[in-house]
Amino acid sequence: MQRTAPEDPARAGEGTAPDPEQDSAPASGREDAAPASDRGRVRHGPPAPDPGLPVLPELAAVLAAAAGRTVSEPPGGSAALRAAAVGHWRRRGIGVAADDVVAAPGGPPLLFALMAAAGGDVLLPRPCPAWWAAQVRLLAGVRSSFHVPTPAECGGVPDPYALLETVTRIRAEGGRPRLLLLSVPDDPTATLAPPETVRAVCEVALAEGLTVVSDETWRDTVHRPRETVFFSPAEMFPDHVVVLSDLAGALTPTTWPVAVARLPATAAGAALRARALDVLAALGATVPAPVAEAAAYALHDPEPVVERAAAAAALHARVQAAVHRAVLDAGALALPPVAGRHLYADLGPLREGLAERGVTDSMELEEYLTARLDTPVPGGHRFGDSLGALRVRLSTAPLLGATPAQRTESLTARDPLELPHLEQALNHLGAALAELGRARRT
Question: Tens digits of per-residue pLDDT, 45-66?
């Protein structure tokens, strides 16, 4: 099942620099209608999907043992942290040396440093991770961002032909396209772009002189890694691709901020790394020492971390599949999820039923489903989609249980879908979607 194409008004704006106020700010008075405590104001992106699972005891023990460290990590990360990242990437087929690694307290400050260091304009797939656009907005006035539509079969990468057309248009209008951001596997669509599509996109980008930043935060959340063909763009074009990974994707809790980036072993890569380090140093953006210890432990891929990541991916795969069925049963659309812990649903076919409830755009859809499901359901406008497109990201973590005991039970159960609390949560979600479908058919 494929996502429907955005409405014509949205397509008309593809490849053009978004107006920050028009794309990000709500209509007059709308900001006050959304409680900031739950989802933030519309200009701010929602947090990444949480794993919804208790902290791994072995990781907690490493963090606790390092709690007394009083010496700060240097900007870009200590030698021990960077060496751990080197081994982590090499075991996944990506060549890198410690001098080509940069660490930061989370993906957002690391991406901000890379964009500030690279200069020029930024190209993003549409839709894209919400926190990317938030970082670009911080550089408003000195950087512009341009959204490029994704292929129908996947998210995370722009359509190669649309990318070429957009770069040509930017240059004709006096812009300076410099960076292309990719998400493989992708947030928000939970899809994995085929290797041939990734290669085609990268070939266009490199022919046009762009540096590619591949966000591989969700790499270790692929549901069936032995059955899934995945090649990092850095394996295809090692001298031209930056790899960024926020460890909260699969290895560490979301509340322990740490991310690492692998830069090309070239003169241009070294210059980019040096400038990024200057930005991180100026911001004071260093990884907390205890978190750095835990991150280094996780990056060594010890057995407890590997087993937890695999178990979590399998659990979320089961729950995502159930959510996907509920979306399709209601008459809505979504691409089959293959990674992550969320689903990107297009409720456009339910527009009539939503309109009966006063929902006519993705902001109103976010407000309606958040209240109906009693959990944050960010709308597609947060991911760069048109406000008129009725899309949302549905996270699976809230379905795993309300207490640590229930979440642990979900993780260890032979069939988690048979657990009463998980079955009840899925039924609640299915009922909320089904009532929209029934309204559409009546």
Answer: 677 778 889 999 999 999 999 9
Three-state secondary structure along 2-68? Answer: CCCCCCHHHHHCCCCCCCHHHHHCCCCCCHHHCCHHHHCCCCCCCCCCCCCCCCCHHHHHHHHHCCC
Strand 342-346 to strand 333-334: parallel, antiparallel, or no bridges (unpaired)?
A: antiparallel
Asked if 118 and 274 count as a contact pair (C-beta separation under 8 A), the reply is no
Cis peptide before 185 (omega within 30 of 0): yes
pLDDT tens, residue by residue, 287-319 = 999 999 999 999 999 999 999 999 999 999 999
CA 316 to each of CA 58, 250, 367, 407, 410: distance values in angstroms, whole numbers, following the listed order: 22, 12, 25, 12, 10
Question: DSSP 3-state helix, strand, coil percentages of the chain (rounded to 5)?
Answer: 50, 10, 40
Residue 116 backbone dihedrals phi, psi, to 5 degrees: -65, -35
Percent above pLDDT 90 for the chain = 80
Look up tokens 């089961």; give the residue.
318
